[in-house]
Structures are given as C-alpha cells and as structure tokens.
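Progress against Task 2.4 (sequence-to-structure conversion) is shown through the following example record, which the project officer requested during the mid-term review.
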Amino acid sequence: MPRGDLPGWKQIFTEDFVTDTPVGSFPSAAPYQGRWNAYPDGTLDTAGKNGAKSYYYPSKVLSVQNGVLDYNLHTANGTPMGAALIPVLPGSSTAYQGQLYGKFTIRFRADPLVGFKTAWLLWPDSGAWPRDGEIDFPEGDLSGSISAFMHRQDGTSGGDQEDFGTTTTYTAWHTASIEWTPNKVDFILDDRSIGSSTGRIPNTPMHWVIQTESSLDHFPAASTSGAVQIDWVAVYSYLQK
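Structure tokens generated for the chain above:
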C-alpha cells in the first residue's frame, strides 16, 4: 500500500486490512468502526431498484482475512447479496464523507462470477443525478472486462457520458485509480491511463462508494458464489495549483 503524499496529491486516508474480522463484524468492529460506512442490510442494489430481488447485505457478505477485505458474493433464499462501502474521509465538509476532487486508488481482484459486477463510483453528495454527474471505475461484470465511465456535469440523462473500455479481466490482481481534477478525469489501470475526460467535469463534492452487486444484464444463478477481494485503498485530496 502506498504511504505518503504524491506530487499534486495529499494522502488523507489509507486502509491495509491488517486485522482479521469475521463475517457479520465489518465495518462495525475495531479497528474499522468509524472508518467505514456500509449501506444497511436490505438496501436495494442497482438491479433491485430496477425491479429485481437483489440487495446489499454487508453482514452476510463482508469479512477481513489474510490481509484482504473479502466480499463473499452469493445467493441466499433466492436473494443475491452484495455490499457497498464508503470510506469516512477526515475533514469532510459533508454528511456523506465526500470531497471536491481527489485521487482514489484501490488494489483488487475477483472471481469470474456471472451475474455479479463492480460499480465502484464517485457519487454526488447532492444526490442530484444526472445533473451533478458520476464517475465509475472499475465498472463491469466480473465475468467480463473492466471499463470506466464519466457522467458529465449538467447531464440531462444517464447516457450523457464518456466511456473507456479495456480487455482486462478481473481475475488477476490490479490497481485502479481515478484522478479527478477541475480540468480532467483520468482513469489509470496498472499504472497506465485507459482514457481521460476533459469536458464538463463534475464540480460538486462526491463520495466514494465501493459498490459490488448484481449485474443489470445477467442475474446471478442461485448456485453462483465467489469472492471480490480488496488488498488496500488510498485516498488523496487535490492540491490546487
């Protein structure tokens, strides 16, 4: 895990997941309590909001073991279960732990589970969508490849966006970064930019939601079960030039 500031960025939050925590105790147990929030059990995920029986259940999904945060994605009693986490950033000026601009870095891998996806995103604290935009990376079905999306500021529809695809799959370890500044959003995968947006950049505070859930396109089979693993995360504030 990187430690310390970078040129143009001040490190404000890190998590290396060094303390094991059983299923049902993350993020409420020490040392994670107060550092992380999770969408409560029974919250509809994105597929659920579109009419599917699909929910976030952190108490049945999340644990920390052997130095990684583990999402045990599975179906119980006909309900696919994922989880959505929000790091609590120090000095945040909003109730959602958001900030204006920043660098958000995560090291991760996943089993190639058909019917589950990542949609790790920066979501506007205002909740005004699509007006205040959205930044998604990495996003994609776990059985497919990794993509990035930027929904533009002052958008009028969900399709008002730029997207950047790759052929990179989830099964190996990868490091992904969103670099969000007033003039550009850069998407970096394994130290290489996969694309940049330079117009109509979101310009209101956003919070980082590490959201893993059912796919909109391929609902998971009842027998589908596996892991998304996160080795570490790091967040930086933007140093105005």
